[in-house]
Specification:
The chain is of the alpha/beta class. 70% of the residues lie in helices and 9% in strands. The radius of gyration is 68 Å and the shape is flat.
Length: 1062
């Protein structure tokens, strides 16, 4: 890839249109020179932005609006266009990229006119055949063409200020981060991290295993009398501490403990069962003796109660006889009540039968009479129905004739009314048409002025629009003047800050230079004190030292680190001063540009205002122009209002004229239709009148009212007859029903009477039978029931039943007690109870011993069952964890004597290849004095990781020293060699990509003449005939060494470039 042409507009510090033609240099090595901040590096930024859409800096990456120039107007579209060639199948192929960054643009129309809107970024790639590549795939296609992404291109094509000096002196840990991005070695770091994570995860698993085993083992209880108790306790403590190597020995002893505990459990169980059997025998005997004692007590109390009950026996017998008599009297009474009920029912049926027989003849005569009356009313209804039907039919026909006559009359009146209205409407229409024709002549004359009024209204509107637009421009300029005034105030403040920063930087710089001189003097003194005759000087190599430097030691000497920090402070103050200066320059340029733009705009606004006002006025301020314009606009608005009113009146008149003409045509059609309808209705009226006259003499009734009255009377007469017939029918039905009911009742009562008399006789016989059975006559049982109330009888019966139950219960208790005693004598219960209590205590102790033995045996079995099965898996897990831990420590550089991690080891391979390329240049630049080498592997891995630390090998004395001991010029040559070697290595590893361009932005000012000449010579050799190399520097000595120069300057309008070819 070789750049041919770079075109920029409104990009970064380049405010105008800038073109850099890379075909102009006659040599491939050229110098990009200019003052600090002029915009030298921006040339490379423009190339990188065109290719990748970002600037080249890795520390301060920018894209979009940040890259738009502050020196350009917002109305200018920013862009970068790069034309470059690339080696193709048929030779050099030319590509062109045009990229527009995200930027602001002013709205030129619509409601948001004058405001800023955001315009998205865009890119266009033109292929060698002239085809424009699809925009969505352009970025990927550019990377494919160049063969490098942005990061790789920036490393290969650009050696930035101080970047490789930092890499050169950085410790290994910082180099590792830098090389990780360059060579993509983060994979090896991820491998080490992954191994460490896996080792930690496995350690967590092992810790869980250890904790689990410790928790399980902690639950083991060992009997105090067990012979191996102390040995087991010691192993349990080891396992609780996490030492699982003792697990097998612990499980072996635990097996023996389990056998011992099982034997103890069996022994305790047998002893417990023996004592339990003894307790059961004593408990059984004690229960029997308590039952015997209870039986004696029950026999005694039951005998005493039996005597008491037998003393009451005679009295209770009398009560029993009385209760039997009362019960008989109660039963006789019940039979007597049934007899009385049967007698009453028989008398009732006999009485009702006699009453029915007596009423039957009268009901029979009444029913016959009702039937005759019903027949007469039916005959009258039939006769009236025929008569009323004839009268109503005649009335209906007459009413229809009367309706036809009335309808005809109504139609006649309606037609007459409509005809009258039609004639009146026609007359009104004729009158309005006449009036409209008169007005039309007047309106036609007035409407002739309409086009002129419309034209005048349009002119007034346009004048107001122009005035409104000018007013907006004036107000915008007033805001611009206010902003310029604010910028002027800020500029004064910024200039004051710049002077303060400048003085601060001067003092700081003088202090640093003074301390730096002291440091060099001190170093010279140290070296001088270490010189011995015959030994070479580490600086010049001489073996003779006639005048060594003498250090007086009168001032405090800063260390190298403190001096570097001091230098950084000075550089920071310089950067701050330059930033303030840049801001002041930019603000000055902005104020100047705004003043020039403001003058032009005020001149243009004055011309427009004079055109509007029709008079010439000059030198007006924005406020004066605005006041004059507002006065003119007020006059225009009043004139426009009058013209608009006149225009509206003429337009309304035109609409009214069109409306009346439309109404006129419609009314003419309506009048014709009305005349035709009037003619038809007149004919209908004649026919209706004739019909009315013909109907007058054909009806049975003279008037409608007479017909309606006849119809109503016929209907009433029919309704009256129907009502009389319905009443007669109801009476007939009721009399027949009453006769039928009496007849049915007589029959049922005749059948029921013998049954009731038979029931009466049967109940009388039962009553006599009960009195004979209970041997109580009627007077006796009635007297007995009268003497004793039901409550007294109930109480006597309850007392008798309770006495009988108690006699039976006492007899049963005495019999059961006799069976239990069976002639046996009682034993000493207190002695038996005492013996049982002692045996129970022995049993409780045996059960406690057995439960403890059983619990201990169960716990020991569970512990063994939980620990034994996982022993092999635990050993495997611990072994794997130890392997992973060792491997992770090895790859992470955590082992003693092996502090280099895997990623550093891999990066040494890449760095070694870079050094091969770098040393070709470095050895040449240092006149074959030095070569860069990596620190030896053994030394790099000792103490801390120094695997990427660089050493300088001296061909003069054969010694090696750290690269940090190089002087400033030597350090620059080493850094430049490293950067060039890095570029060579990246280009080699990029699959044969050929990049024919390189920019070097480094400090050549630190080199002496010989080193600088050698560096230029090497770069010239590198450039050869194919590669284009640009050195970005402001060092004056380079201007005499490099003929072709791209000179960058900067003024109030931004940066500018020009070629100087000598």
């Amino acid at each position: 890839m070789r750049p041919v042409r770079l075109e920029m507009e409104a990009f970064a510090s380049y405010g105008g249109h800038e073109v850099v033609d890379f075909t102009k240099p006659r040599q491939n090595l050229f110098l990009i020179t200019g003052d600090t901040g002029a915009g030298k590096t921006t040339i490379f930024d423009g190339i990188v932005f065109a290719l990748y859409g970002e600037n080249s800096s890795t520390q301060n990456r920018k894209d979009g609006i940040e890259l738009v120039s502050q020196f350009a107007s917002v109305d200018v579209e920013p862009y970068v266009e790069l034309t470059f060639t690339q080696e193709g199948i048929d030779g050099e192929e030319e590509y062109r990229i045009r990229r527009v960054p995200l930027h602001y643009k002013r709205v030129t129309r619509g409601a948001n006119k004058g405001k800023l809107k955001t315009v998205s970024s865009s890119v266009t790639l033109t292929m060698p055949d002239g085809m424009v590549y699809p925009s969505k795939e352009t970025d990927a296609k550019i990377i494919e063409i160049v063969g490098l992404d942005r990061g790789q291109f920036a490393q290969v094509a650009m050696i930035a200020q101080g970047e490789f000096m930092t890499v050169l002196r950085a410790p290994s840990k910082d180099k590792k981060l830098i090389f990780r991005k360059l060579f993509g070695t983060d994979l090896y770091d991820r491998v080490a991290v992954e191994l460490r994570q896996r080792a930690n995860e496995k350690m967590e698993q092992v810790n869980v295993i250890r904790q689990t085993c410790a928790t399980i083992a902690a639950g083991l209880e060992i009997p105090l009398n067990y012979e191996k108790r102390e040995e087991l306790l010691a192993l349990r403590e080891k396992i609780k501490e996490g030492s699982l190597s003792y697990m097998e020995e612990f499980l072996s002893l635990l097996t023996e403990l389990n056998e011992y505990l099982r034997a103890e459990e069996t022994k305790s169980d047998e002893e417990k069962n023996q004592v339990a059997k003894e307790l059961e025998e004593i408990s059984t005997l004690l229960t029997r003796e308590m039952e015997l004692k209870n039986a004696y007590e029950i026999r005694k109390s039951a005998g005493e109660r039996w005597k008491e009950l037998m003393a009451q026996k005679e009295e209770r017998q009398k009560e029993k006889i009385l209760l039997e008599q009362l019960q008989g009297a109660d039963q006789i009474q019940a039979a007597y009540k049934l007899y009385l009920d049967a007698q009453r029912e028989a008398d009732r049926v006999s009485r009702q039968l006699e009453e029915a027989k007596a009423s039957y003849p009268a009901l029979q005569a009444k029913a016959k009479e009702s039937e005759q009356q019903h027949k007469k009313s039916r005959d009258r209804l039939t006769e009236q129905s025929e008569k009323s039907g004839k009268v109503r039919e005649m009335a209906r026909k007459s009413l229809e004739l009367f309706s036809q006559m009335e309808q005809a009359k109504e139609n006649l009146v309606k037609v007459q009314t409509q005809a009258k209205e039609g004639r009146e409407a026609y007359e009104k229409l004729q009158q309005s048409l006449t009036e409209m024709e008169e007005k039309e002549a007047v309106w036609a004359a007035e409407l002739k002025a309409l086009p002129q009024v419309q034209k005048e209204s349009l002119l007034k509107k346009n004048g107001l629009a122009v005035a409104q637009e000018l007013l907006g421009t004036i107000e915008e300029e007033e805001r611009a003047e206010a902003y310029t005034k604010k910028l002027t105030e800020n500029l004064a403040l910024g200039q004051k800050r710049y002077e303060e920063a400048k003085e601060d930087y001067r003092k700081e710089k003088e202090g640093y230079e003074r301390q730096y001189g002291i440091f060099l003097d001190a170093q010279a003194g140290v070296l001088a004190r270490s010189l011995t005759e015959g030994s070479p000087c580490p600086v010049c190599g001489s073996t003779e030292h006639p005048k060594p430097f003498v250090w007086m030691g009168e001032a405090e000497v800063l260390t190298k680190e403190e001096l570097d920090q001091y230098k950084e402070q000075v550089e920071e103050k310089n950067r701050k001063m330059m930033e303030l200066a840049t801001k002041c320059n930019e603000t000055t340029a902005t104020i100047r540009e705004r003043e020039e733009t403001g003058d032009k705009r005020r001149e243009q606004m004055g011309e427009k205002l004079n055109t509007l006002l029709g008079e010439v006025q000059s030198g007006l301020s924005c406020q004066e122009m605005r006041e004059a314009l507002l006065t003119h606009m007020a006059v225009l608005e009043k004139e426009q209002e009058a013209v608009s009113q006149k225009l509206k009146e003429l337009q309304d008149l035109e609409k009214e004229h069109d409306r009346l003409r439309s109404v006129h045509a419609k009314r003419k059609e309506e009048t014709a239709l009305a005349a035709e309808k009037e003619k038809k209705l007149t004919a209908d009226l004649a026919r209706a009148t004739s019909l009315v006259e013909s109907l007058k003499d054909t009806g049975e009734f003279k008037t409608r009212e007479e017909a309606m009255q006849a119809d109503e009377k016929a209907e009433k007469d029919l309704l009256l007859c129907r009502k009389e017939e319905e009443q007669a029918a109801a009476v007939d039905e009721a009399d027949r029903k009453a006769l039928l009911e009496v007849s049915s009742r007589m029959q049922s009562l005749t059948e029921e009477l013998p049954k009731r008399q038979e029931e009466k006789s049967r109940r009388a016989a039962e009553y006599e039978e009960w009195m004979q059975k209970k041997q109580l006559q009627e007077e006796a049982w009635q007297k007995l029931l009268a003497e004793y109330a039901p409550e007294q009888i109930k109480k006597l019966r309850q007392e008798s039943e309770e006495y009988a139950k108690e006699v039976a219960s006492v007899a049963a208790s005495m019999e059961a007690a006799d069976q239990t005693i069976a002639g046996r004598e009682q034993m000493d219960l207190a002695a038996l109870s005492e013996k049982k209590e002692k045996v129970s205590e022995r049993l409780a102790l045996c059960q406690q011993n057995w439960a403890a033995a059983r619990q201990s045996a169960s716990v020991a079995r569970q512990i063994y069952d939980r620990l034994a099965p996982g022993q092999e898996e635990r050993k495997a897990a611990i072994g794997k964890q130890e392997v992973l831990e060792h491997l992770a420590d090895k790859l992470s550089g955590k082992l003693t004597g092996s502090r280099m991690d895997l990623e550093t080891f891999v990066q040494r391979y890449y760095l070694q290849k870079i050094l091969v390329h770098a040393n070709r240049r470095f050895t040449a630049m240092t006149a074959s004095q030095y070569r860069l080498e990596l620190m030896e592997l053994e030394d790099a891995a000792t103490g801390k990781n120094k695997g990427l630390d660089l050493m300088v090998h001296s061909f003069v004395n054969g010694g090696k020293r750290p690269v940090n001991t190089l002087s400033g010029g030597e350090s620059f040559m080493a850094a430049l060699s490293m950067a060039l070697g890095m570029a060579d290595q990246i280009q080699e590893s990029a699959a044969g990509i050929r990049l024919d361009v390189m920019f070097i932005d480094e400090g050549f000012g630190s080199l002496d003449d010989r080193s600088r000449n050698e560096a230029v010579r090497i770069l010239s050799d590198m450039a050869g005939e194919a590669r284009l190399i640009g050195i970005i520097s402001h060092v004056n000595e380079l201007k005499t060494k490099i003929d072709d120069q791209l000179v960058i300057t900067k003024d109030e309008k931004g940066s500018h470039s020009r070629w100087v070819i000598s």
